[in-house]
Structure formats: C-alpha cells, structure tokens
C-alpha cells in the first residue's frame, strides 16, 4: 500500500514538473519564472535537509491538530445527534463557525494566542474538522434500527450504547473520512504557518515566495507530498487494525 | 414556420445586442496602442503619479491605451513581463537584480523612488534610535526573506553590530507585537503604513519617529519602472511615450497646485483610505519621489543600484555579480 501511494505521488509530481519544464523551454522563460534542472538540483542540495525537518515540524502539528479535530467532531457529533434544542444549537454553531474564511479569522487567533504552536494547532483543527463533523453528525444521527430496537424494548439503551452501535456499524465510513481529513489537517497547518508562524514548512514557503524562488517551493511541495503520503498510509493501516480488532471482538 | 422565423429573429436580436454591448464595453481610445502596466503593490499613494497619468488622459495623449493593474505579493511584474501579460511594470531593485541573476531579460527605464520608503517606526519616548549604533540591545522587527531583512542586515554590518547584540523579531501581517511594546522598532513603508500607525498611536497619545536606513548610508533602491530588452529593441517609441506620460503624471500629481485633484484620483482607486490620510500619504510620498526641488523625477541613481547589488552579494542573496549598470536604461537615452 505504501509503495503504491508513494509511486502515485511521484508520478503526479514528475508529470507536474515535466509540464513546468516543458512550458519553460517552449516559452523560453528564464530561471526566475520557472527554475531549470540545474537550479533545482542546486536548491535541493541547499535546502533539502532543512525543509525535511520543517515538514516534520508541520506534520507533527498536523497530526495533533487532526487528533483534536477528531475528538471535537466526536463530541459535537454526539451532542448534535440529539433532537433537542442543545443538539440543534450545537449543529448551527458548528456550521456557522465553519462559514468564516480561516484567513480572516487567523489574525484574531494569532492576536489572542500568539504565533506559537497553539495557534497552528487550532487553525489545523478548525480546517480539517468540518468534513469530519458532517460525517460524524450524519452517522451518529442515523439510527441502526434492527439493533437499537432490541435494546430499546428491553429498556437497556443508554446514550453510550447508542453511540457505540452507530460507530461500530459505520466503522468503514468513519475510517475513510478520518483518512481524508488528514490531508486537510496538513493543509490547515501550512496555511497557519504561512499566515503567521515562525517555523514549519508553511513559513519556509512564505520566505521562498518573498524571494521569488520557485525552486524552493517545488522542493517543499515534494517533501510535503511524500510525508503526507506516509502519514495517510499510516492512518489507513491504523484504521484497518482497529476494524480488525472490532470484528474479532 | 412562423414560430421558426420568430425564433430566428429572437436569436439574431440577442446576438446583435451582445455584439453591440461588447463593443460599447471596450475602452474608448481603441485607436491607441494597448499596453498593460503591472504595479508592485495595491493602489495607494505610492502610485499617485501612475493613477494621475491614467485619470487625466496623459497616456491617451501619447496614443497609448494603458491598463494599470494592481500588484501584490503573488503578482510579480517581472514574471508578467516574461509571460507577455504586461509590457511595463514596477519592481524593487532586489526583485530586478534577483531576476537578472536568473537570466531574466529585464531593464530599468525609470526610478520612481529616489530613496527607499522602507523605514522602521519606533516610540521615541520609550526607545531612542538617534544613530544606527543605538540599535544595539533593541528588538528589531524584520520580515525574513523580505527586502527589509536585507536592509537591516546591511545596516548592522555597516556599523559592526553583531547579530547577538540585537534581537531580531519575525514580522507578520499584524502589528500587535509593536503596539504591545514587545518589539522596539518595526518595519513600515513610511508613506503608507507609517501614516496609519502614527495616527493610531497618536490617538493613544503616543509619539512616533522613524529610523531611516538611507540616512545611515544604506541605499537600497525601491520602486522602479521596468520593461523587457525585447520591448526596447522592437518598440522604443512606445517605451518613450509610456515613460513620458508616466513621469508627467508624477510631476503633475506632486505639484501643490494639483494636490486636490491628485488626492481625489488616488481616493477613486483606494476607497478604503480616508481623504485626509491620502493627503498625508501623498505629502510624504513626495519626499521620496522628489527629495529636493532640483531632483529630476524618474532619474536612475546608478550608484544606489550598485550599492543594492553589493548588499545582495554580501548577503549571498545572488550567486554572483550581475553588473547592474548594464540593465539601467534611462528612457531619455533610448
């Protein structure tokens, strides 16, 4: 699974890079607009190690942000599944918050929390939690009638049991949406770093853009792609193990 | 049959309307040669002359139909020139030198800012920066990767101030660290942001002052008008006409007699800034475009360009010399 995902990414990256170089040579553009192979290899030798650690820094924040957003979506999903006033309020509030563009909200977050790790975490979590929330609310609000009916008529149904039944019956869907939102966590962290952080690959990309250095951006994109592929494969593996565990249990 | 004819008539009427509307939508002055001018930043007082020339028809008088497009962080005029999307642009010296070092065929035809408007704002009641040596021990805001980083590092190097003698603070979009006093001096464009921040602090009864690297002997050239080598070779007349109209726009916009007209023209493009602030910004901009009555607007200061190149070389921002004087082509020499 890992090698296939990496191979797919490499294929897309090489295709993209080849297209850029094709445009460069057809339109006779200078290295300032699109860097040539020599400039690219020079940049790789200069920044590869630094950018690798920057991506690791970003990935670590993205992973924690993702975990926070999964927890957040679970809590909101559990409350939002209720047909009560509280459930409806939580749903509306969650949807409304998501309607604000993060680039407009981010400066407020940075004013309140500074430009440290907490702001990056919050922005990453906010960006990736919405798709999670939609699925979680959908899944947790949908009764599994065949099973739930039995517990209801015997008077043994509790909210915990109800949540467990619905989660277990929809494990595949949940795993898919969690893996999908991991990419968004990475994107969220990079956006946060781009706007106001002092570290991470988003911050390095911002500096590269200030210097109009596309070759640095291309190296950053390569590392982001590889590391995100690795992280997604890990998540898929974890999801697979959890599903197996539940099936056996 | 009748229905078919009705349908055909309807389609014909719609088509004719679209064609006529499209024709009317086209800018007047179709006879003029169409060129696009990409600015370095958004519309504000820093481009007063460019706007003035456009609004008052100076380009049209020269037989040009100029579309002025605002710039921004992701809109690089040099790239636009290479891609053929613009024929003229504004760029700072560091952008031009970087591009030339990477093989871009760009030439400078006029230098709008005779001194760089990038300065550092501070509160004189709290922080004293009377001389560059006073920077020792201060927390200095810089944008890593930006030209303010290069300028500040050049100032520190010139006055033998080691990096461990100051604290460099990474600057972002919001000014909160400066307002909160976490940073002693903060980089601003003196004629635009400098006015806003001064006004804000003045409301809080705080005085402001500016540290000017130019006064410390570090000359790092800012906004200049650029085009391509090819454009100069193939169409020098258009280049000459463009610069003539543009510089006339600057001359007129900075003339005290035309102040109200210039302020109104800028405000037409920059509606978010109050008329009063625009007036202040224009007044300060004048100091950078025409520092003395003898200064010729648009004059290219070759020594300042060479110093900018040297600063970039010393800081390894370019791999080797580009002999910047070769790309300086004042329009009157074309």
UniProtKB/TrEMBL annotation, chain A:
The chain crosses the membrane at residues 7-27, 59-80, 92-113, 119-140, 174-197, 217-238. It is a multi-pass membrane protein. Keywords: Cell membrane, Membrane, Transmembrane, Transmembrane helix, Transport. GO terms for biological process: transmembrane transport. GO terms for cellular component: plasma membrane. Gene3D superfamilies: MetI-like. The keyword Hydrolase does not apply. The keyword Transmembrane helix applies. It comes from the Bacteria. Its main location: membrane. Residues 75-247 form the ABC transmembrane type-1 domain. It is found in: Cell membrane. SUPFAM superfamilies: MetI-like (SSF161098). This is ABC transporter, permease protein, MetI-like.
TrEMBL record, chain B:
Keywords: Iron, Metal-binding, Pyridoxal phosphate, Thiamine biosynthesis, Transferase. GO terms for biological process: thiamine biosynthetic process. The keyword Kinase does not apply. Pathway: Cofactor biosynthesis; thiamine diphosphate biosynthesis. Transmembrane segments: none annotated. Residues 44-254 form the SsuA/THI5-like domain. Homodimer. Responsible for the formation of the pyrimidine heterocycle in the thiamine biosynthesis pathway. Catalyzes the formation of hydroxymethylpyrimidine phosphate (HMP-P) from histidine and pyridoxal phosphate (PLP). The protein uses PLP and the active site histidine to form HMP-P, generating an inactive enzyme. The enzyme can only undergo a single turnover, which suggests it is a suicide enzyme. This is Thiamine pyrimidine synthase. The lineage of its organism: Bacteria, Pseudomonadati, Thermodesulfobacteriota, Desulfobacteria, Desulfobacterales.
């Amino acid at each position: 699974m890992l090698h296939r995902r990496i191979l797919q990414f490499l294929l897309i990256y090489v295709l993209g890079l080849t297209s850029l170089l094709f445009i460069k040579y057809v339109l006779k553009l200078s290295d300032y607009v699109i860097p040539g192979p020599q400039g690219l290899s020079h940049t790789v030798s200069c920044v590869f190690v630094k950018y690798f650690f920057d991506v690791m820094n970003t990935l670590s924040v993205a992973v924690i942000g993702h975990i926070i957003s999964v927890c957040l979506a679970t809590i909101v999903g559990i409350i939002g599944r209720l047909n009560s006033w509280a459930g409806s309020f939580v749903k509306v509030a969650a949807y409304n918050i998501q309607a604000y563009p993060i680039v407009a909200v981010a400066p407020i977050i940075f004013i309140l929390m500074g430009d440290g790790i907490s702001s990056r975490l919050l922005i990453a979590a906010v960006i990736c939690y919405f798709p999670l929330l939609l699925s979680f609310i959908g899944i947790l609000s949908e009764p599994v009638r065949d099973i739930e009916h039995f517990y209801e008529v015997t008077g043994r149904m509790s909210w915990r049991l109800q949540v467990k039944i619905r989660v277990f019956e929809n494990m595949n869907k949940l795993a898919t949406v969690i893996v999908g939102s991991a990419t968004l966590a990475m994107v969220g962290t990079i956006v946060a770093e781009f706007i106001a952080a002092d570290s991470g690959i988003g911050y390095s990309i911002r500096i590269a853009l200030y210097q109009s250095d596309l070759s640095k951006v291309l190296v950053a994109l390569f590392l982001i792609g590889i590391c995100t592929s690795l992280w997604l494969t890990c998540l898929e593996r974890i999801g697979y193990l959890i599903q197996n565990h539940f099936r056996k249990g | 049959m009748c229905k078919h004819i009705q349908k055909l008539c309807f389609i014909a009427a719609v088509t004719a309307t679209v064609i006529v509307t499209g024709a009317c939508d086209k800018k007047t002055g179709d006879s003029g040669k169409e060129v696009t001018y990409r600015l370095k930043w958004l519309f504000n007082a820093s481009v007063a002359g460019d706007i003035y020339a456009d609004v008052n028809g100076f380009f049209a008088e020269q037989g040009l139909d100029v579309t002025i497009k605002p710039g921004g962080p992701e809109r690089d005029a040099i790239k636009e020139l290479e891609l053929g999307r613009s024929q003229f642009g504004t760029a700072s010296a560091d952008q031009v030198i970087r591009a030339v070092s990477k093989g871009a065929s760009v030439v400078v035809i006029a230098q709008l800012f005779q001194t760089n408007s990038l300065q550092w704002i501070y509160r004189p009641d709290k922080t004293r920066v009377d001389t560059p040596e006073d920077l020792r021990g201060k927390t200095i805001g810089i944008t890593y990767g930006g030209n303010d980083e290069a300028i500040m590092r050049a100032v520190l190097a010139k006055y033998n101030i080691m990096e461990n003698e100051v604290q460099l603070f990474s600057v972002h979009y919001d000014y909160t660290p400066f307002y909160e006093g976490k940073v002693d001096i903060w980089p601003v464009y003196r004629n635009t942001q400098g006015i806003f921040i001064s006004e804000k602090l003045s409301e809080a009864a705080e005085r402001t002052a500016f540290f000017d690297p130019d006064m410390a002997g570090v000359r790092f050239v800012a906004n200049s008008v650029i085009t391509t080598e090819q454009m100069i070779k193939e169409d020098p007349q258009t280049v000459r006409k463009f610069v003539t109209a543009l510089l006339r726009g600057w001359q007129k916009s900075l003339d005290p007699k035309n102040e109200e007209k210039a302020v109104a023209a800028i405000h037409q493009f920059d509606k978010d800034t109050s008329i009063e602030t625009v007036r202040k910004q224009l007044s300060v901009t004048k100091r950078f475009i025409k520092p003395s009555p003898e200064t010729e607007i648009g004059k290219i200061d070759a020594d300042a360009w060479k110093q900018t190149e040297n600063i970039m070389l010393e800081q390894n921002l370019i791999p080797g010399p580009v002999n910047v004087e070769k790309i300086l082509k004042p329009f009157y020499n074309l």
